[in-house]
TrEMBL record:
It comes from the Bacteria. This is ABC transporter permease. The chain crosses the membrane at residues 20-44, 64-84, 122-140, 146-175, 187-212, 232-252. Keywords: Membrane, Transmembrane, Transmembrane helix.
Length: 269
């Protein structure tokens, strides 16, 4: 019964996005344009040598192109509107309807996000991968690196959802949180390695990035994909860090939710 409810909630989100097919072409064009711009920028930075020194050793231009493409692939799923969705439900009062549903509010938001990701996988990710393979000759990982990469990406996307969902709960106290969303997006873009790999950061920025969870969404999975992380101990350490952050945000959002519901009831919402 509960599984059927989750499935229907997910499919409703999937069907809703089918009505906005023009967004597919716009998003796909935007992603491809971003990849082309980044590729040519890195070509200019690498110059004729085709190699750059970094904290991960010598990086070739082909590895950097692969990094750009894989980062764009991950962003198809990592880019979500969870913060806006939660804020909108709170400000419009729709949250009251979600509270009477036979499933948790977090599950409602997760199913809606998962339905959106299913849509993006079929209509945005597949064309993006095909075009990237044809034009950029993306390097393929070894079997072991590929499996480890998928595990890390899955954990990273769960972590990304919990981060955005937890931030979204702030809307129960401050209705308009677009400023917080803007700051969060800036931090993720810089310290996740989505645009500039952390191996090109200064020592101080590298140390600071290790106190944040964002690198576990982009940088670490892509590093494994490219074979920059080869030892099982290093890989296990990354997985344990992801699990620790996931558990931490699960506990934090549960605590915030208990406070938020009492605040909503006290206000008569």
């Amino acid at each position: 019964m509960r599984i059927a409810l989750y499935r229907e909630m997910t499919m409703n989100a999937f069907r809703t996005h089918l009505a906005f097919r023009a967004e597919v072409l716009l998003f796909l064009f935007g992603q491809l344009f971003k990849i082309f711009v980044q590729v040519y920028i890195w070509h200019a930075l690498f110059g004729d040598s085709g190699q750059l020194a970094s904290q991960a050793g010598s990086i070739s231009i082909q590895e950097m192109i692969t990094y750009v493409v894989i980062s764009s692939v991950i962003s198809v799923f990592a880019t979500n509107d969870v913060i806006f969705k939660v804020s909108s439900k709170v400000s419009s009062g729709e949250i009251a309807m979600d509270l009477i549903k036979p499933m948790s509010f977090r599950s409602v938001v997760f199913c809606q996000t998962f339905g959106t990701n299913m849509y993006r996988m079929l209509f945005e990710l597949v064309p993006l991968v095909i075009v990237s393979l044809l034009f950029f000759h993306v390097q393929l990982p070894s079997l072991a690196s590929g499996i480890a990469f998928l595990i890390l990406v899955f954990n990273g996307l769960i972590l990304n959802f919990l981060i955005t969902y937890t931030i979204g709960l702030i809307a129960f106290w401050y209705i308009l949180i677009w400023q917080i969303n803007t700051v969060l997006n800036g931090l993720i873009r810089l310290f996740s390695g989505a645009f500039i790999p952390i191996w090109f950061f200064s020592d101080s920025l590298v140390q600071f990035s290790y106190f944040l969870p964002f690198r576990l969404i982009y940088y670490e999975p892509i590093s494994v994909y490219l074979g920059k992380v080869t030892g099982w101990q290093e890989l296990l350490a990354i997985v344990l860090q992801q699990v620790a952050w996931i558990v931490g945000f699960l506990l934090l959002q549960r605590w915030m939710w208990s406070k938020a519901v009492r605040r909503l009831v006290a206000q008569g919402g």
